[in-house]
Each structure stands twice: as structure tokens, then as C-alpha cells.
Amino acid sequence: QLQLVESGGGLVQPGGSLRLSCAASRFTLAYYAIGWFRQAPGKEREGVSCISSTGGSTNYADSVKGRFTISRDNAKNMVYLQMNSLKPEDTAVYYCAAGDGNICLHTMDVVTTFQARFGSWGQGTQVTVSS
Description:
The structure is a single chain. The protein is mainly beta. Helix content is 5%, strand content 47%. It contains 1 helix and 11 strands. The protein has one helix at residues 108-113, and strands at residues 3-7, 10-12, 18-25, 33-39, 46-51, 58-60, 68-73, 78-83, 92-99, 118-121, 125-129. The strands form 2 sheets. Strands 2, 4, 5, 6, 9, 10 and 11 form a 7-stranded mixed sheet that branches. The protein is globular and about 40 Å long. The relative contact order is 0.31.
């Protein structure tokens, strides 16, 4: 089973920044598209951002566009989510997931709908935005 581990979550004030990391063990991340998802209490899990295997294509949910940046370093087997200008509504558990094919070429609405295309998931990291 592919293993993903998220880190970097925490408590931050509105307007602050966090950088989430997604590390892989036992497999090479470079072969996979990687998505970041989040789930707030009482809400469905939603796709936040997605990056193709080469990093050449990225997508963002409208709610985070212009504030979040996804990137990957295949040499280090890592994917990152830089989150700036954080808002209370960004509070959620954030997950990274490894996906197949060209899933990240689609809009985040499609990525959210087809979460089954992501076969391996991390345990999640809590992000809390509060004053």
C-alpha cells in the first residue's frame, strides 16, 4: 500500500500562512498526480488543489485561488501546499492523495466528484484558523 504522510498543520490567526507537506514512503511520488483535499466538521470532503505528475499542470478550487499554491519536488519525493491569507473558513483537516492518469487536468469540481481516482490517502493534518 502506498503511504502518504501530511505535516505542517496547526493553529494560525486569520491572514496568516502555513505550508503543508506531503511525503511518500515505499513509492515514487513522481509517477502520480497529487491532490490536496480538506474536510471541515459537518461538511463533505472537497478538493482544494491538484498537481500533475510532472508539475506542469495545477488546479485550484475557486475558494483558494490566489491564496494557495501547490508545488512538488519529485527529487525529494514531496508535494507542498503553501497557504497564505488564511481565513476561518479554511479550517479543516487537510489530506493529500495520490491519483492516476490525467485527473489533475480537470477542474476541482470534477476532481472532487471523482475522488475514487485517488487510490492512496494520508491520515490528514488539522488546520485551524482562528483569532
